[in-house]
Amino acid sequence: MKLILLYISLFGAQSVLLIWIGGAILFLLLCYGIYRQLKTGKSLKRELAEIDKIRQNNIEYEFVLKAMKIAVWRYDSATKSFVFENDFREGQQNFIPGTNQPFIDTLTVVGPADVERVNQGFNDLFEGRSDFYHQEYQVTNPYTGETYWEESYATIVERDEEGKPSKIVGTSQRIDERKKLEASLVAARNKAEESDRLKTAFLANIGHEIRTPLNAIVGFADLLPVVKNEEDRLQLIAEIQENNHKLLRVIDGLVSMSKIEAGAKSLLMGRVDLNELLQHVAEAYQPTTNLPIHVQCPLPHLKIETDREKLQEVLDHLVQNAIKFTTDGEITLSYETQGNQVRVNVTDTGKGIDETDQTRIFERFVKVDEFIPGTGLGLSVVESHIKNLGGSLGVESSLGAGSTFWFILPLE
User: Fold this and answer.
1) Which 3 state secondary structure label does DSSP give 337?
2) If DSSP codes are grouped into helix, strand and coil, which group holds residue 296?
3) 336-367 b/e (C-beta count within 10 Å ≥ 16 → b)
4) pLDDT score for 199
5) Of 195, 226, 237, 322, which sees the most CB atoms within 10 A?
6) What residues contact 234, with CB distance under 8 A and at least 6 apart?
7) From CA 138, how far away is CA 114, in angstroms rounded?
């Protein structure tokens, strides 16, 4: 109190009041500064937290793009060009439009079958007629020449005052593997449908194949007791025997295919004289045809390690086919050695096989000529036996010039 009275006596009441006001202002300024600093610190913490959150979102965003193998792009309405922001597509040869490259120029890389559809889809999006875009198309990279499949999605994010799209974002992804899978599934479906159709035709055909020789056997057998002429009786017996062989061949084909379907692949391997086997097959079928059946063996003897029964069945089917499809000329059975393998040929001078049919004649139930008797199983059985014996087979033919069915087997 004495100090205050002393100040008043020395400086006057007005001066003391000013000093007190000034001190109060300084105190308030100090408090405000502290408050601002605290507030700024909290704001800075919030900003840092937001930045960290954005950074974390970007990491997660990029992780998703990498996992999905997607490219993200936006369409610049001002320059009418694409800008790729991220590209995590598979492969290293993906096409990316150049800076400010016009949209119309990017269409040159799209496959001819897809370009019109892609162009229409993008134009609908750019003009605002559609809010969403989705297309699958082929792309050929002009810099590498690589062609691949791509799938793109896009949508309008913002519009201007006139309602025109001002911001469009989209994604692109390579779908080569998916397209391969789709193609294989379609091929499998088509093959299954064709197999079902052929099986239905086979069931209708097999009845005819069995009934025809069976009717002949029954009919001629009924005539035998009443025919007295010996020559006529011999002719009837010959007809019965011929139809017996036809019926047996049909049944043998069915039995062989049934064994193959059941997975029976047991082989009885042994030494087989190929010269003797070819001669045996030729002599067995010569009485059934007016065509000469020749055997050409370049070596005096050739023994191979194989299953004689399966190999003879293969030759039987091939010679039967040659007889059925040849009206003039001859049939030749031959072989040639190729290192540790032997190639066996059954050649005829028949009608030949069209090139488009040569790839499917080994499938089950397939008949090139529906008017020629047969079940459509013979060549399928041949293929299965040759593969089980460790070999390969094929055909060389042209229409009107005959055919050569060949197969290759190991000598040992």
Assistant:
1) strand
2) strand
3) eeeeebbbbbbbbbbbbbeeeebeebbebbbb
4) 73
5) 322
6) none
7) 7
117-155 residues labelled b (16+ CB within 10 A) or e (exposed): ebeebbeebbeeebeebebebbbeeeeeeeebbbbbebb
Q: 116-123 — which CB contacts under 8 Å span 24+ positions?
A: 122/154
User: What SS3 state is found at 163?
Assistant: coil
Residue 23 pLDDT > 70: no
| Pair type for strands 331-338 and 293-296 | parallel
Task: Evaluate whether 381 touches 253 at the Cβ level (below 8 Å).
Answer: yes
Concatenated DSSP letters of 345-377: EEEE-SS---GGGTTTTTSTT--S-TTS---S-
Angle at 367 between CA 366 and CA 371, to 5 degrees: 155
8 Å CB contact between 411 and 337: yes
3-state secondary structure of 91: coil
Nearest to 114 by CA among 106, 74, 130, 171: 106
- For residue 16, give both structure tokens: 């003391």
Q: Which residue has the higher pLDDT, 221 or 3?
A: 221
**pLDDT, averaged across the chain:** 80
Percentage of the chain beyond pLDDT 90 is: 19
What tokens does 163 get?
A: 């309602």
Name every residue whose Cβ is closer than 8 Å to that of residue 80 and which is 6 or more positions away in sequence: 102, 103, 126
At 353 the pLDDT is 85
Asked if 376 and 360 touch (Cβ cutoff 8 Å), the reply is no
